[in-house]
């Protein structure tokens, strides 16, 4: 005779897993999303950020429509979408490209991307568009200059006549600059940096509004992950719909993408 299998009734000598209730499933989903948000805040606040270039002040190095990954590691840590942040241990180096909060309260403290020209203690002088640091001419193969602009006050800096800058200086910098000029050279104070755009004749930079405090440094770009040729205003603040249309157009017309710039590193 074949032995018959004995099936024990549920609940007697056999553990039965309870099914998740709708409330349990909702709670699990909430917890999962909570950790996703925490991870995003950690990465965005301390490691990397995505930025898009809205102006031509850094051409030819960085173009309008370039999408960058910016490393914050060691430079700055903060909570995204808030003004809270803490400067970290790394210090920008001369000629390094840096993303920072511009000291321009009337413009809402915008984020700028420029190149470090002067670090704390540097003596800076610009003659005919050529930058001299501590008595040595700076080698700048990246700089874009117009020959006709060599005589402009902004290309001969600091100006002998501060009021020759055609009113382009902020009122605060007009008052502060003379205190930092020694023997015709601008001296960068401690914990501050002098920034300039590579497109020298089309750059709103430290020549016009002053030094950047160390605590304003956000990070440095590491790679271009996307670059789209579109109207400059598309990439400015508040143009969400135009930007979405631009991305859609790039999908339909791939020729709008600057493919050769993708994955370019700094």
Structure, explained:
The structure is a single chain. With 266 residues, the chain is of the alpha+beta class. It has a single domain (49-261), classed as Ribbon (Umud Fragment, subunit A). The protein contains 4 helices and 14 strands. It has helices at residues 22-47, 171-176, 206-209, 240-252, and strands at residues 48-52, 66-71, 76-78, 85-87, 97-101, 111-118, 123-127, 130-133, 136-137, 181-182, 185-187, 192-196, 212-213, 217-227. The strands form 3 sheets. Strands 1-2-14-5-6-12-13 form a 7-stranded antiparallel sheet. The protein has a 5-stranded antiparallel sheet with strand order 9-8-7-11-10, with no helix packed on it. Strands 3-4 form a two-stranded antiparallel ribbon. It is globular and about 80 Å long. The chain starts with 21 loop residues before the first helix and ends in a 14-residue tail after the last helix. The mean pLDDT is 87.
Estimate nothing, just give the exact number of structural domains.
1
**What is the assembly state of the chains in this entry?**
single chain
Shape: globular
Strand tally? 14
Gyration radius, rounded: 27 Å
Give, in spatial order, the strands making up the sheet with the most strands: 1-2-14-5-6-12-13
Order of helices and strands: HEEEEEEEEEHEEEHEEH
N/C terminus separation: 81 Å
Q: Count up the helices.
A: 4
Q: How does CATH name the architecture?
A: Ribbon
Instruction: Report the biggest beta sheet as strand number plus sense, adding barrel if it closes.
Output: 7 strands, antiparallel
| Global mean pLDDT | 87
Q: What helical percentage do the residues reach?
A: 10-25%
CATH overall fold name: Umud Fragment, subunit A
């Amino acid at each position: 005779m074949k032995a018959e299998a004995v099936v024990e009734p549920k609940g007697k000598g056999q553990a039965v897993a309870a099914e998740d209730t709708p409330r349990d499933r909702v709670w699990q989903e909430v917890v999962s999303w909570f950790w996703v948000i925490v991870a995003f805040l950690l990465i965005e606040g301390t490691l990397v950020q995505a930025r898009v270039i809205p102006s031509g002040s850094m051409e030819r190095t960085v173009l309008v429509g370039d999408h960058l990954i910016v490393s914050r590691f060691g430079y700055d840590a903060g909570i995204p979408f808030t003004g809270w942040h803490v400067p970290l241990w790394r210090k920008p180096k001369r000629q390094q490209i840096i993303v920072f909060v511009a000291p321009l309260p009337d413009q809402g403290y915008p984020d700028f991307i420029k190149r470090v020209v002067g670090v704390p203690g540097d003596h800076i002088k610009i003659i005919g568009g050529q930058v001299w640091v501590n008595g040595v001419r700076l080698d700048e193969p990246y700089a874009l200059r117009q020959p006709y602009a060599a005589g402009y006050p902004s290309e001969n800096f600091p100006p002998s006549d501060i009021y020759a800058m055609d009113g382009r200086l902020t009122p605060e910098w007009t008052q502060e600059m003379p205190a930092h000029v020694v023997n015709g050279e601008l001296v960068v104070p401690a914990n501050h940096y002098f920034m300039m755009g590579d497109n020298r004749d089309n750059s709103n930079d430290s020549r016009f509004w002053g030094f950047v405090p160390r605590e304003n440094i956000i990070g440095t770009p590491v790679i271009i992950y996307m670059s789209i040729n579109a109207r400059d205003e598309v990439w400015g603040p508040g143009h969400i719909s135009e930007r979405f249309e631009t991305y859609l157009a790039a999908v339909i017309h791939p020729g709008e993408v600057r493919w050769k710039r993708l994955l370019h590193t700094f």
